[in-house]
Design goal:
alpha/beta, nine-stranded parallel beta sheet, two-stranded antiparallel ribbon
Length: about 350
Amino acid sequence: MFFLTNLQSDIRSTNMRIGNIELGDKPLFLAPMEDVTDLSFRYVCKMYGADMMYTEFISSDGLVRDAPGTLGKLRIFDYERPIGMQIYGHIPEAMVESALRVEQARPDVIDINFGCPVNKIARRGAGSGMMREPDRMVEITRKVVDAVRLPVTVKTRLGWDDDSKIIVELAERLQDVGIKALTVHGRTRCQMYKGQADWTLIGEIKRNPRMRIPIIGNGDIKTPEDAAAAFGRYGVDGVMIGRATFGHPWIFREIRHYLDTGERLPDMPVREKVVLAKMHFAKSLEFKGERRGLLEMRRHLSCYFKNLDNFRETRMRLVTENDPVKVLEILDYIGDTWG
């Protein structure tokens, strides 16, 4: 595993809480991801054991302007709880106003995105762009915490680049203005998603005797062994999983089984993946309507079957077909041919 070292943490996870929210021992979090963690994807991740999930991240600017696409991200269901909504932006007043709007949608947690590395967000000073302005980051956090009654959490990175890994000191400052948990992705902004996540500083935050809030680790959790090592070697309170859930939402079940038993579950059979893909597809159509639901489901459908041999032609049919009935027929063909 990429981040295994000889370091053995003397801290072990206990039952985790965010405010009054009980999350149990070693909870598993679904990361907020734009165009991924929509209602239908969250439905299947919850079914497979995600302990806490987040909506797609929400633009503070879009929310205060009542942009229809942004408002649509405020829709949640009780079966998803506990669930967090994540906001991003760089203007304090807009962040406070958007936090108040999000609070009206009744999530369990409001999370502030100081971690997104994509250029259109970071170069405006939002997301991980805020790592270059830690004083402003702390001030925005303080104002949001003071404005709302819900627990406020933060997700961020190690720093802007290798020469400015400020997260250990920054974690204390964010705690001191009132956040209830901190998620740290083990890369700098300049790394984007390249290279390997470095969990060393995440472990250092957790071992800091002045830290009292839960620490959630994020970055390159791809297997049950990765998650077990994150808990065992770095002592984090929770693990957040992002890109490894693409086409693999049952990873939460696999990790939980491994943590409980020390054994791996067998790989999911293709026919079972087909059943899941059809359920996911149906939920996408239900929540978004036929046309949009079909188009936005394509990224998921191709990922469900990405490791099949001689699949290229069938994959092209699956991601270009515009008739929902024929999409289901292609899925049945996949089950019959590769199952």
